[in-house]
From TrEMBL:
Alphabetized Gene3D superfamilies for the sequence: Transferase(Phosphotransferase) domain 1
GO molecular function: ATP binding; protein serine/threonine kinase activity
InterPro entries (UniProt xref): Kinase-like_dom_sf, Prot_kinase_dom, Ser-Thr/Tyr_kinase_cat_dom, Ser/Thr_Kinases-Pseudokinases
Domain Protein kinase span(s) in chain numbering: 1-95
Annotated protein name in UniProt: STYKc
Species for this entry: Musa troglodytarum
Length: 101
């Protein structure tokens, strides 16, 4: 959950962008974020300590950058979904150029 939802503040669709960043992390790592914490501890860490899942060294730089922008503390600095789609499409084009897809 996005920090502003945990704190029960007014929120926008940017909470979904935050969640997308977390889901992307889960897909790339096949791990559960904050697995060593209770849900309450994880929520407190996210909302009050700006905790985010650690990016593994094997994470492609482009995806690490995308996730970090999705889970920015300030919702106004998070991407819009049309920006996310454009970034993912550009990654796809780059991979095609290298015959990786």
């Amino acid at each position: 959950m996005a920090p502003e939802m945990i704190k029960e503040k007014i929120h926008t669709r940017k909470v979904d962008v935050y969640s997308f960043g977390i889901v992307l992390w889960e897909l790339l790592t096949a791990l559960i974020p904050f697995h060593d914490m209770t849900p309450e501890q994880a929520a407190y860490a996210v909302a009050h300590k700006n905790a985010r899942p650690a990016l593994p060294a094997s994470c492609p730089l482009a995806f690490g950058h995308l996730m970090s922008r999705c889970w920015a503390t300030n919702p106004g600095k998070r991407l819009q979904f049309d920006e996310i789609v454009a970034m993912l499409e550009s990654y796809e084009e780059s991979l095609k150029n290298y015959s990786l897809l």
